[in-house]
Amino acid sequence: MKKLLSKIAFATLITIIVLYAVFPFYYAIVSSMKPASQLFQVDYLPRVWYWENYGSVFREQPFAANIANSVLVATSVVTVSLFLGVTAAYALARIRFKGRRLLMSTILGVSMFPQVAVLSGMYSLINALGLYNTLSALSLSYMLFTLPFTVWLLTTFMRGLPQELEDAAIMDGATPWIIVTRIFIPLMWPAMVTTGLLAFIAAWNEFLFALTFTFTEEVRTVPVAIALISGASEHELPWGNIMAASVIVTVPVVALMLAFQRRIVSGLTAGAVKG
């Protein structure tokens, strides 16, 4: 009887958590399928399949270009962050040098600064480099918060790899670059997928830097484009369009999470048990 009650309690708890996490996104989908006249009616199932909101999102602003901007910026941030993260992780995890712990602490400390605290400095840097209102400005600024946790996570993972693999490669005359690319990277795929996906989501959802460092519609990313969707007057927001745009930009992230969920779990648990 106790086992049955515990199973029921556990199933109830899981159901509540799933509903709490999934219901807002589900209701956004339902709301995106409503015409403006029915938008504020509470319906838990769509009465009609009203696709006009999705079409108007792309007709009334360059939303396709905004999506392409977000994909390009997030992909470039992930690529550069993983490249720098892997090479830095090798140096921090495998090479003993003076000040290594201080450097690791500094990298971790950088990630603790709120974005607004470095906004003015980054704005001055972007202007000085002549990158204002370009996608390069976003890629450069986003790495300020993606690089620290990428380096930290990959360094922690690389420390758990067997030292014997590196010693054998050195005996065979392998250079550090060959050791990293041909020995360590194939073993680090779970950790790299996890950190890469986290960096992609962070870059995909970033709003403050994207709002500050761009001013034309063609260069904006999707979070800023959604925030600046306006209606016929300043007092009438097209909530149907906003819900449709939110669903459009959320689906890729959900799809990535579902596609790589096994590698994400293995990446998060890698190194937890040493054999």
Features:
275 residues; mainly alpha; MetI-like fold; 13 helices
Task: Provide the fold topology.
Blueprint: H1 2-32, H2 52-60, H3 63-94, H4 100-110, H5 115-128, H6 135-159, H7 163-171, H8 176-187, H9 189-205, H10 208-213, H11 222-227, H12 239-259, H13 261-269
Helix pairs in contact: 1-12, 2-12, 3-6, 3-9, 4-6, 6-9, 9-13
Q: How would you concisely characterize the structure shown here?
A:
Helix content is 73%, strand content 0%. By secondary structure, the chain is mainly alpha-helical.
Write structural notes for this entry:
The structure is a single chain. This protein has 275 residues and is mostly helical. The protein has two domains: 1-50, no CATH class; 62-269, MetI-like fold, CATH 1.10.3720. The chain has helices at 2-32, 52-60, 63-94, 100-110, 115-128, 135-159, 163-171, 176-187, 189-205, 208-213, 222-227, 239-259, 261-269.
For the terminal residues, how far apart are their CA atoms?
38 Å
Strand content: under 5%
How can the largest sheet be summarized?
none
Going by CATH, what is the homologous superfamily of the largest domain? MetI-like
CATH architectural grouping of the largest domain: Orthogonal Bundle
CATH topology of the largest domain: MetI-like fold
Give average pLDDT, whole number: 85
